[in-house]
Amino acid sequence: MKRLFFKILNWSLIITLIIILFIIGFVQYSKYKLHSTSPKIPAEYVYQDLIIENNDSLFKYGKNWARINKYGVWEVSLEGDAFERGVAYGNLIKEPIQYQEEVFVNSINKVVSSEFYQWFLKNLIYFFHADINNYVSEELKNEIFGVSLSFSDEYDYIGKKYMRILAYHAAHDLGHALNNYSLVGCTSFSAWGDNTKDGNIIHARNFDFYFGDDFAKEKVLLMVQPDSGYAFISYSWPGMMGVVSGMNEEGLAITINASMSSPPTSAKLPISLLVRETLQFSKNLAEAKNYINSKEVFVSESIMISSANDNKTIIIEKTPEKTDIFEDNELIICSNHFQSSSFLNDSINIKNIKNTDSKHRYNRVNELIKKNPILDLKTSIEILRDNKGLNNKEIGFGNSHAINQLLAHHGIVFEPNKKNVWISTPPYQLGDFICYNLDSIFSSNNFEITQIIKKDSFLDTKEYDDFEKHKTIRNKLNDYILFNTPEPQFDKHEFIRLNPNSYNTYYLLGRFYYKRGEYKKAKEMFEQALQKDFPSQSLNKEIENYLTR
């Protein structure tokens, strides 16, 4: 029996070793594929000098420029061929780009602190993206390669710069595919015809991609005039050449909302790059449909598209397996579940609607629009800023049942018929909304802010100050519970007072006391948490599991 045991053990070790060697071999092959297909610097390209003017507030690189507006938002204007645009972008805002990667990598290292798992994650990225070059156009590869030249050498241990930025462009996809979109929970809506005061389209959205407060500090309004296709703008973060919120000179506006996906098995075209190319090469809904239908993706996404040329908005619901279109009569709402007929009986979509916060935010938008059935710009922004639950219920600040979860990277409103784009300024979607006109930008080279809607009055309240104090303690508690940082010193009663209606207040206290072995106190907090408005069934079950231990 003993000899049989060791024989089996030896065979197990041999099989394990073979699997490990296979994985390492495949990873090395993946590295080779990625590196061997990286673009090259064109022999004829001539590098420009970076010129700094206006007391260090205006940066010029050839015909391209960047500046920071009074709200701390970067305005960047690019033109020329793909590589030229990328190099210019990298040189114009080199420091913010390097800061963005530093924040991104530090956040990952915080979550994945083990050196072995960091090594594993790095090689998983190689493995996952081995074939991504097959799905990305030459233009985008050259543009991204140009940007990558300004990346820091500090993180070359992760991979070469081009590979890293290409992988970062799939962060939105990987974030929601591997975490059931726990990093992203966007809410969007659009109205036109009889549902707006002037009959023109109003297309509004919150982009709730959250990777920590530091990740959202640097924001970029990117204005691109490519050498082929349509000029466009996008609003995101430094180094991002893909689009998550954007509009082109034809008045085609696109925003994206994640939906629940099966775990991906390989990389295809990242959603942000799909949207970018759709904006660059489509002038109406028909062309946008054709373009999106022709591409393969590796996650599920709702792509909401408004067109001035059609005076209409649609949602293209796309998964790795199929695509369908959802249309409605002059009003359309989008959160994080699918609505078209193809997905009504889809098991993943049904689970998504049942177990997540998506339907709650959808219903809240619908409720608010019914109270204001003829939308204008001001009302639309007020909806984006709404932090209450259904029937105006107080659900605590930061609850994902709310449209405004107080974590948005940005809010944005498009008026495609007027070629206006309104972007939020920090914090979240609460600061001033400022307007840029695309006709002025791309025909007259006028990049000035044309209109302003003032900040949310909530910013000047004690409740907002209390929420920020609550968040500081909340983050320390999370770090202690998840990452074993030093135990935070805080007053329990003060923590409750700062955000008394939030389930998360009591949920965190329950986990805090549970970790300390104070089970009676933990039980008390968990029971109070269950009395509050919960964002998902899975979290509810988690607390019930704590209570049964």
Overview of the structural elements:
With 549 residues, this protein is an alpha+beta fold. It has two domains: 74-395 and 402-460, Penicillin V Acylase, Chain A, CATH 3.60.60.10; 462-548, Serine Threonine Protein Phosphatase 5, Tetratricopeptide repeat (Alpha Horseshoe). It is built from 18 helices and 18 strands. The chain has an eleven-stranded mixed sheet, sandwiched between helices. Strands 14-5-6-15-16-17-18 form a seven-stranded antiparallel sheet. Strand 11 (301-307) and strand 12 form a beta hairpin. Helix 8 runs antiparallel to helix 9 (285-293), helix 14 runs parallel beside helix 16 (503-515) and helix 16 packs antiparallel against helix 17. The longest helix is centred in the N-terminal third of the chain and has 35 residues, at 2-36. The radius of gyration is 24 Å and the shape is globular. The relative contact order is 0.09. Mean pLDDT is 89; it is low at 1-30.
Q: Would you tell me the overall average pLDDT?
A: 89
The first-to-last residue Cα distance is: 39 Å
Q: Which bin fits the share of residues in helices?
A: 40-55%
What is the CATH domain class of the largest domain? Alpha Beta
The CATH superfamily name of the largest domain is Penicillin V Acylase, Chain A
Strand order of the largest sheet: 1-2-3-4-7-8-9-10-11-12-13
Number of domains: 2
Number of helices: 18
Please identify, by name, the CATH architecture of the largest domain: 4-Layer Sandwich
Largest sheet: 11 strands, mixed
Instruction: Give me the Rg, rounded.
Output: 24 Å
What share of residues are in beta strands? 15-25%
- If you consult CATH, what is the topology of the largest domain? Penicillin V Acylase, Chain A
The chain-level structural class is alpha+beta
